[in-house]
Amino acid sequence: MNAPVWEPQPDSTRNYLCTMPNCYSTCGVRHSFGRVLWLLPLQLVPCSHCRHPHSLHYHWYSKWVKVQRPQVSVDDNVKKLCKAAKDEKERTEALIAVRNGALDGLNRDMDQAMEELVQLVAEYSSLSLSGSFSAHLEKTTLLLERRRTTMKETGASVEQLERMQSSLNNMKRKRDLLKEGVRNGDRATAV
Predict the structure, then answer these.
(1) How far apart are CA 125 and CA 140, in angstroms?
(2) Among 1, 55, 161, 174, which is least packed by CB within 10 angstroms?
(3) C-beta separation of 186 from 136 below 8 A
(4) Which residues have CB under 8 Å from 161's CB, separation 6+?
(5) Helices and strands, number each (H, E), in the chain
(6) pLDDT digits over 35-87, tens only?
(7) Where in 29-142 does DSSP place strands (E)?
(8) Whether the Cβ atoms of residue 30 and residue 15 lie closer than 8 Å to each other
């Protein structure tokens, strides 16, 4: 998987870089040789940019940049299963079992997230019954429709799709009820 990492990258100008762990500040850009000499007596004074001592800084033709680098992560249980396998078939079966376990975990997480989403949508829709709230319900309904389409395309379970459809129908019913109330209110004020 890719993870963000801070690295010094070459630059065409002499810059002032902090070397304090986890700081990654480029505290000055385009420092002249005179500026380098001027900072020598101030080694124990904190830098005005990052507040670390000047002694933890250096001048170089580079700057700190956040880049994406691949990071390797090894699951020790999977490693043990693969080592314990006697042949390629057993190794494949072990990897399939691990994959199925990971998929089950992801499905449980998705189910829990869907339940939370349904609960939040219900709470959100019960916050107000004013006419100005109909736009929020309309947007929420569109969001749920798009989410259901995405779930269908990615192969979600029938149970998940049914739950999403139930939530969507509930939101549509509330939206229609609210729109009808707004229309009736507009007619009442016009009379």
Answers:
(1) 9
(2) 1
(3) no
(4) 148, 151, 152
(5) 5, 3
(6) 667 666 777 788 888 888 878 887 888 888 888 888 766 667 777 777 787 78
(7) 57-70
(8) yes
